[in-house]
Amino acid sequence: MSEFMRVAMGFPANLFGFGLVVVLVYWLTVLVGAVGVDALDGGEGIDADHCDHSGTGPATGPAAVLAAAGLSGAPASVSLSLLISIAWFASLSGAAAVERTGGGGPARLLVLPAALLAAWGLTRLLIRPLARLVPRETGTSHRDLVGRVCTIRTGHVSHRFGQAEITADDGSAHLVQVRARCEDAAGLAAGSTALVFDYDPDGGFFHVMPCDPVLDPGPDAGRPPR
Q1: Per residue in 68-117, pLDDT tens?
Q2: From the centroid of its chain, how far is CA 187?
Q3: Among 27, 37, 130, 144, which one has the highest count of C-beta atoms within 10 angstroms of its own C-beta?
Q4: Are residues 169 and 204 in contact, defined by beta-carbon separation less than 8 angstroms?
Q5: φ, ψ for residue 44 (rounded to 5)?
Q6: CA 197 – CA 217 distance, rounded (Å)
Q7: Helical segments of the chain, H only
Q8: Which long-range contacts link 142-145 to residues 24+ away (Cβ below 8 Å)?
Q9: DSSP-derived pairing of the beta strands 173-179 and 205-210
Q10: Cβ atoms within 10 A of the Cβ of 95, count?
């Protein structure tokens, strides 16, 4: 046990030791229901053509970093846990092997990149089958909101300014940027309803015009009667 503790507290295993403790604490909180498995995702799976509930666009964070490293597919918490755990075990095993063969400091320095490479490769290999088990949420496309009725949330709407709230088919509310033609702006004030008739991908906003709320097709529009 003393040899194990010496290697675990030494370089480079100690670099991943704290991360491993965080991983264990995190999964304990998941088991007791304090957080969800996807708590670190931050909107993973929402791309540039999909909007979030705040209208701020794609999320960033651990999920974005993992995606850039080619480790997307599974929840970010799962990928990070695998990455840290494998890196710790690989660095621990490598350091122990170096110590037993009488290697010095330079040999230990080589263990760190080897452990990181092994962790990346094994994590990428393991999350591939996990990705097939995780249901993918496609989110709500901007184009899916065209043709819906929205509620204006700013004091006025012009060709340069405006926000509105749209309720998607799944019941989620989206605060989005909207613009109106000069001749339509007078009829658009806070609390009024407007028809979303187009989306500008370059500007990232919807074109709206005044309308009666009874024209809202609703979430069941286009569906065959039961």
Answers
A1: 888 877 778 888 999 999 999 999 998 888 888 876 667 778 899 999 99
A2: 37
A3: 144
A4: no
A5: -60, 140
A6: 13
A7: 2-9, 13-31, 62-68, 76-100, 105-133, 142-145, 182-185
A8: 142/49, 142/50, 142/51, 142/199, 142/201, 142/206, 143/49, 143/199, 144/168, 144/169, 145/51, 145/174, 145/176, 145/196, 145/199, 145/206
A9: parallel
A10: 24
Find where tokens 């012009």 sit: 158
**The tokens of 84 are what?**
């840290």
DSSP per-residue codes, 153-180: -SSB--SS--EEEEE-TTS-EEEEEEE-
Report how far residue 222's alpha carbon sits from residue 213's, in angstroms, rounded to the nearest whole number. 18
Q: Side chain identity at 156, as an amino acid letter?
A: H
Backbone angles phi, psi at 121, to 5 degrees: -65, -45
**∠ at Cα 132 (66, 83), nearest 5°?**
30
Taking only the tens place, the pLDDT of each residue in 144-198 is 788 889 999 988 898 888 899 988 777 778 888 999 988 887 778 888 999 999 9
- Polymer length of the chain: 226
- Structure tokens belonging to residue 110: 């080589």
Q: Is the pLDDT of residue 18 over 50?
A: yes
- Give the Cβ contact number of residue 29 at 10 Å: 12
* pLDDT average, residue stretch 2-8: 77
Q: Which long-range contacts (CB under 8 A, 24 or more apart) does 38-45 make?
A: 38/75, 38/76, 38/77, 39/77, 40/75, 40/76, 40/77, 40/80, 41/75, 41/76, 41/77, 42/76, 44/72, 44/75, 44/76, 45/136, 45/137, 45/138, 45/139
